Amino acid sequence: MNVHSSPTLPAAAQEVVATLVAARRSGHPAPAAPLRDALSTDDEAYAVQDAVAQALGWFADGGPGYWKSGGASRDSVLSHAALPSAGVRVAGDTLADLSFHTPAVEAEIVLRIKEDVTPERAQRLGHADGPALVDAMAVAIEIADSRWQEGLQAPAALRLADQGSHGALMLGEWLPCRAHDWASQRCEVRFGGTPVIANTGAYSLGDPLWLLPIWLRHATRGGRTVAAGSVVTTGSWVGAIPMPKDADVVVRFPGLGELGLRGGTVHSSRSIDFT
Protein backbone atom coordinates (compact mmCIF):
# COMPACT_ATOMS: atom_id res chain seq x y z
CA MET A 1 0.00 0.00 0.00
CA ASN A 2 1.36 3.42 -1.01
CA VAL A 3 0.20 5.11 2.17
CA HIS A 4 2.48 6.60 4.77
CA SER A 5 2.70 4.32 7.79
CA SER A 6 1.43 6.28 10.76
CA PRO A 7 3.39 6.23 13.99
CA THR A 8 1.88 4.43 16.93
CA LEU A 9 -1.06 6.55 17.95
CA PRO A 10 -2.02 7.38 21.53
CA ALA A 11 -5.10 5.53 22.76
CA ALA A 12 -7.28 8.63 22.44
CA ALA A 13 -6.26 9.09 18.80
CA GLN A 14 -6.91 5.42 18.12
CA GLU A 15 -10.42 5.98 19.44
CA VAL A 16 -10.86 8.79 16.91
CA VAL A 17 -9.78 6.40 14.14
CA ALA A 18 -12.23 3.73 15.26
CA THR A 19 -15.05 6.26 15.54
CA LEU A 20 -14.47 7.73 12.07
CA VAL A 21 -14.18 4.31 10.44
CA ALA A 22 -17.42 3.18 12.09
CA ALA A 23 -19.20 6.38 11.04
CA ARG A 24 -18.12 5.98 7.42
CA ARG A 25 -19.12 2.33 7.32
CA SER A 26 -22.51 2.89 8.94
CA GLY A 27 -23.36 6.24 7.38
CA HIS A 28 -24.27 7.56 10.82
CA PRO A 29 -22.27 10.50 12.25
CA ALA A 30 -20.80 10.21 15.73
CA PRO A 31 -20.72 12.77 18.56
CA ALA A 32 -17.50 14.74 18.64
CA ALA A 33 -17.90 16.04 22.20
CA PRO A 34 -16.50 12.94 23.97
CA LEU A 35 -13.36 13.19 21.80
CA ARG A 36 -12.92 16.95 21.94
CA ASP A 37 -9.45 16.71 23.52
CA ALA A 38 -8.35 13.44 21.90
CA LEU A 39 -5.92 15.03 19.43
CA SER A 40 -3.20 17.37 20.64
CA THR A 41 -1.43 18.24 17.36
CA ASP A 42 -2.05 18.50 13.63
CA ASP A 43 0.43 15.66 13.17
CA GLU A 44 -1.85 13.41 15.18
CA ALA A 45 -4.82 14.50 13.05
CA TYR A 46 -2.88 13.64 9.87
CA ALA A 47 -1.90 10.29 11.37
CA VAL A 48 -5.60 9.64 11.98
CA GLN A 49 -6.33 10.53 8.34
CA ASP A 50 -3.78 7.95 7.20
CA ALA A 51 -5.05 5.30 9.58
CA VAL A 52 -8.66 5.78 8.45
CA ALA A 53 -7.59 5.56 4.80
CA GLN A 54 -5.67 2.37 5.51
CA ALA A 55 -8.56 0.78 7.42
CA LEU A 56 -10.97 1.52 4.57
CA GLY A 57 -8.54 0.51 1.82
CA TRP A 58 -8.83 3.79 -0.06
CA PHE A 59 -5.37 3.68 -1.60
CA ALA A 60 -4.67 -0.04 -1.70
CA ASP A 61 -3.88 0.11 -5.43
CA GLY A 62 -1.55 3.11 -5.26
CA GLY A 63 -1.04 6.51 -3.70
CA PRO A 64 -3.79 9.11 -3.43
CA GLY A 65 -4.77 10.65 -6.75
CA TYR A 66 -6.92 13.42 -5.28
CA TRP A 67 -6.16 15.89 -2.52
CA LYS A 68 -7.55 18.98 -0.88
CA SER A 69 -5.42 21.83 0.44
CA GLY A 70 -6.00 25.40 1.52
CA GLY A 71 -5.92 27.97 4.27
CA ALA A 72 -7.39 31.20 5.53
CA SER A 73 -4.43 33.31 4.36
CA ARG A 74 -0.80 33.03 3.30
CA ASP A 75 0.14 33.66 6.93
CA SER A 76 -1.97 30.78 8.22
CA VAL A 77 -1.03 27.12 8.53
CA LEU A 78 -2.44 25.32 5.49
CA SER A 79 -4.35 22.09 5.93
CA HIS A 80 -4.39 19.08 3.62
CA ALA A 81 -6.17 15.76 3.12
CA ALA A 82 -5.96 12.84 0.70
CA LEU A 83 -9.39 12.11 -0.80
CA PRO A 84 -10.97 8.76 -1.68
CA SER A 85 -11.51 8.50 -5.44
CA ALA A 86 -14.97 6.95 -4.91
CA GLY A 87 -16.32 10.41 -4.10
CA VAL A 88 -14.97 12.13 -7.24
CA ARG A 89 -17.51 12.96 -9.95
CA VAL A 90 -17.43 14.48 -13.46
CA ALA A 91 -20.11 15.57 -15.95
CA GLY A 92 -22.79 12.91 -16.41
CA ASP A 93 -22.12 11.27 -13.04
CA THR A 94 -24.68 11.10 -10.28
CA LEU A 95 -24.31 11.56 -6.53
CA ALA A 96 -27.16 9.14 -5.81
CA ASP A 97 -24.84 6.55 -4.29
CA LEU A 98 -23.45 9.04 -1.76
CA SER A 99 -25.13 10.06 1.48
CA PHE A 100 -24.53 13.33 3.29
CA HIS A 101 -25.19 14.51 6.83
CA THR A 102 -24.77 18.29 6.71
CA PRO A 103 -23.60 19.04 3.15
CA ALA A 104 -22.18 22.44 2.26
CA VAL A 105 -21.02 23.79 -1.09
CA GLU A 106 -17.50 25.11 -1.68
CA ALA A 107 -16.60 26.74 -5.01
CA GLU A 108 -13.00 25.96 -5.92
CA ILE A 109 -10.29 25.76 -8.56
CA VAL A 110 -8.47 22.44 -8.95
CA LEU A 111 -5.01 21.88 -10.39
CA ARG A 112 -3.56 18.80 -12.10
CA ILE A 113 0.11 17.92 -11.67
CA LYS A 114 1.85 17.10 -14.96
CA GLU A 115 4.82 15.05 -13.71
CA ASP A 116 5.93 12.98 -10.75
CA VAL A 117 7.13 14.95 -7.73
CA THR A 118 9.52 13.14 -5.41
CA PRO A 119 10.13 14.10 -1.78
CA GLU A 120 13.54 15.45 -2.75
CA ARG A 121 12.09 17.68 -5.44
CA ALA A 122 9.27 18.85 -3.19
CA GLN A 123 11.79 20.10 -0.65
CA ARG A 124 13.46 22.29 -3.29
CA LEU A 125 10.28 23.89 -4.63
CA GLY A 126 9.49 27.57 -4.23
CA HIS A 127 6.24 29.40 -4.90
CA ALA A 128 7.50 30.57 -8.30
CA ASP A 129 7.80 26.94 -9.41
CA GLY A 130 4.04 26.35 -9.35
CA PRO A 131 3.26 27.06 -13.04
CA ALA A 132 5.88 24.58 -14.24
CA LEU A 133 4.25 21.79 -12.19
CA VAL A 134 0.71 22.07 -13.53
CA ASP A 135 -0.72 21.13 -16.93
CA ALA A 136 -4.42 21.88 -16.35
CA MET A 137 -6.94 23.55 -14.09
CA ALA A 138 -10.71 23.34 -13.73
CA VAL A 139 -13.68 24.69 -11.85
CA ALA A 140 -14.74 22.37 -9.04
CA ILE A 141 -17.37 21.96 -6.36
CA GLU A 142 -16.38 20.33 -3.12
CA ILE A 143 -19.26 19.16 -1.00
CA ALA A 144 -18.06 19.54 2.56
CA ASP A 145 -19.59 17.08 4.99
CA SER A 146 -18.76 15.56 8.34
CA ARG A 147 -18.72 12.27 10.15
CA TRP A 148 -19.36 14.27 13.34
CA GLN A 149 -22.85 15.07 14.56
CA GLU A 150 -21.72 18.63 15.18
CA GLY A 151 -20.84 18.95 11.48
CA LEU A 152 -18.61 21.87 10.61
CA GLN A 153 -18.93 23.07 14.22
CA ALA A 154 -16.91 20.11 15.51
CA PRO A 155 -13.47 20.92 16.99
CA ALA A 156 -10.90 21.90 14.36
CA ALA A 157 -8.58 18.96 15.05
CA LEU A 158 -11.42 16.47 14.64
CA ARG A 159 -12.51 18.14 11.40
CA LEU A 160 -8.95 17.89 10.09
CA ALA A 161 -8.77 14.23 11.12
CA ASP A 162 -12.02 13.65 9.19
CA GLN A 163 -10.22 14.36 5.86
CA GLY A 164 -10.87 18.05 6.37
CA SER A 165 -14.65 17.47 6.43
CA HIS A 166 -14.67 16.18 2.86
CA GLY A 167 -17.83 14.72 1.33
CA ALA A 168 -17.44 14.67 -2.46
CA LEU A 169 -15.61 16.43 -5.28
CA MET A 170 -17.12 17.42 -8.63
CA LEU A 171 -14.75 18.36 -11.45
CA GLY A 172 -15.49 20.62 -14.40
CA GLU A 173 -13.83 20.73 -17.81
CA TRP A 174 -10.04 20.81 -17.81
CA LEU A 175 -8.39 23.94 -19.22
CA PRO A 176 -4.72 24.58 -19.98
CA CYS A 177 -3.05 26.16 -16.96
CA ARG A 178 -1.97 29.67 -17.89
CA ALA A 179 -1.15 33.02 -16.31
CA HIS A 180 -4.34 34.46 -14.90
CA ASP A 181 -5.51 37.63 -13.17
CA TRP A 182 -6.93 35.99 -10.05
CA ALA A 183 -7.53 39.35 -8.34
CA SER A 184 -10.13 40.14 -11.02
CA GLN A 185 -11.67 36.67 -11.16
CA ARG A 186 -15.38 36.56 -10.31
CA CYS A 187 -17.08 33.60 -8.62
CA GLU A 188 -20.85 33.06 -8.56
CA VAL A 189 -22.97 30.46 -6.78
CA ARG A 190 -26.68 29.76 -7.20
CA PHE A 191 -29.09 27.24 -5.73
CA GLY A 192 -31.87 26.68 -8.23
CA GLY A 193 -32.68 30.12 -9.63
CA THR A 194 -31.67 31.92 -6.45
CA PRO A 195 -28.33 33.79 -6.26
CA VAL A 196 -26.47 32.78 -3.12
CA ILE A 197 -23.19 34.67 -3.37
CA ALA A 198 -21.00 36.45 -5.91
CA ASN A 199 -17.58 37.96 -5.33
CA THR A 200 -14.44 39.06 -7.14
CA GLY A 201 -10.87 38.25 -6.13
CA ALA A 202 -12.04 36.60 -2.92
CA TYR A 203 -9.62 33.68 -2.92
CA SER A 204 -7.77 33.69 0.40
CA LEU A 205 -4.31 32.78 -0.96
CA GLY A 206 -4.37 35.17 -3.91
CA ASP A 207 -3.27 32.58 -6.49
CA PRO A 208 -4.25 28.87 -6.30
CA LEU A 209 -0.78 27.83 -7.51
CA TRP A 210 0.83 29.50 -4.50
CA LEU A 211 0.05 26.56 -2.22
CA LEU A 212 1.67 23.90 -4.41
CA PRO A 213 5.10 23.72 -2.71
CA ILE A 214 3.51 23.56 0.76
CA TRP A 215 1.00 20.92 -0.25
CA LEU A 216 3.60 18.85 -2.12
CA ARG A 217 5.95 18.81 0.87
CA HIS A 218 3.07 17.47 2.94
CA ALA A 219 1.92 14.99 0.30
CA THR A 220 5.44 13.54 -0.11
CA ARG A 221 6.08 13.12 3.60
CA GLY A 222 7.19 9.64 4.60
CA GLY A 223 8.96 9.10 1.28
CA ARG A 224 6.05 8.82 -1.12
CA THR A 225 6.00 10.39 -4.58
CA VAL A 226 3.06 12.41 -5.90
CA ALA A 227 2.29 10.89 -9.29
CA ALA A 228 1.73 12.78 -12.52
CA GLY A 229 -1.99 13.35 -13.00
CA SER A 230 -2.66 13.90 -9.30
CA VAL A 231 -5.29 16.54 -8.61
CA VAL A 232 -5.46 19.04 -5.76
CA THR A 233 -8.33 21.34 -4.91
CA THR A 234 -7.11 24.62 -3.52
CA GLY A 235 -9.69 26.07 -1.13
CA SER A 236 -13.10 27.68 -1.31
CA TRP A 237 -13.83 31.13 -2.72
CA VAL A 238 -17.15 31.30 -0.86
CA GLY A 239 -16.63 29.51 2.44
CA ALA A 240 -18.91 26.53 3.04
CA ILE A 241 -22.52 27.33 2.10
CA PRO A 242 -25.14 24.98 3.58
CA MET A 243 -26.75 23.05 0.72
CA PRO A 244 -30.55 22.71 0.72
CA LYS A 245 -31.87 19.19 0.28
CA ASP A 246 -32.25 18.20 -3.38
CA ALA A 247 -31.08 21.66 -4.49
CA ASP A 248 -29.81 22.35 -7.97
CA VAL A 249 -26.39 23.96 -7.65
CA VAL A 250 -24.44 26.08 -10.12
CA VAL A 251 -20.92 27.42 -9.58
CA ARG A 252 -19.56 29.79 -12.20
CA PHE A 253 -16.11 31.28 -12.67
CA PRO A 254 -16.61 33.53 -15.74
CA GLY A 255 -13.91 32.93 -18.31
CA LEU A 256 -12.91 29.60 -16.75
CA GLY A 257 -16.06 27.50 -16.65
CA GLU A 258 -19.25 26.49 -14.93
CA LEU A 259 -20.21 23.39 -13.03
CA GLY A 260 -23.57 22.33 -11.74
CA LEU A 261 -25.60 19.67 -10.01
CA ARG A 262 -29.08 19.32 -11.51
CA GLY A 263 -31.50 16.63 -10.48
CA GLY A 264 -28.65 14.84 -8.75
CA THR A 265 -26.51 14.70 -11.93
CA VAL A 266 -23.31 16.64 -12.53
CA HIS A 267 -23.30 19.09 -15.46
CA SER A 268 -20.26 20.91 -16.76
CA SER A 269 -20.36 23.70 -19.34
CA ARG A 270 -18.74 26.95 -20.32
CA SER A 271 -22.07 28.65 -20.99
CA ILE A 272 -24.55 27.86 -18.21
CA ASP A 273 -27.35 30.44 -18.45
CA PHE A 274 -27.69 32.49 -15.26
CA THR A 275 -30.64 34.58 -16.51
- Share of residues in helices: 10-25%
Which oligomeric state applies? single chain
| Envelope shape | globular
Q: Domains counted in the coordinates: how many?
A: 1
CATH architecture: Alpha-Beta Complex
Query: What is the strand content?
Result: 25-35%
Question: Largest beta sheet, briefly?
Answer: 9 strands, mixed
Which stretches of 5+ consecutive residues score pLDDT under 50? 1-5, 271-275
User: How large, in whole angstroms, is the Cα Rg?
Assistant: 18 Å
Q: What value does the average pLDDT take?
A: 94
Strand and helix order: HHEEEEHHEHEEEEHEEEEE
Which descriptors apply to this entry?
alpha+beta, Fumarylacetoacetate hydrolase, domain 2, 5-stranded antiparallel β-sheet, 27% strand, globular, disordered N terminus, disordered C terminus
What does this structure look like?
By secondary structure, this protein is an alpha+beta fold. The protein has one domain (11-269): Fumarylacetoacetate hydrolase, domain 2 (Alpha-Beta Complex), CATH 3.90.850.10. Helix content is 20%, strand content 27%. It contains six helices and 14 strands. It has helices at residues 11-26, 42-56, 119-124, 130-133, 156-161, 212-219, and strands spanning 66-70, 79-83, 88-89, 104-113, 134-144, 166-171, 175-176, 186-191, 194-200, 231-233, 241-242, 249-253, 257-262, 265-269. The strands form two sheets. Strands 1, 2, 3, 4, 5, 6, 7, 10 and 11 form a nine-stranded mixed beta sheet that branches. A hairpin with a 3-residue loop joins β12 (249-253) and β13. α1 (11-26) crosses α2 (42-56). It is globular.
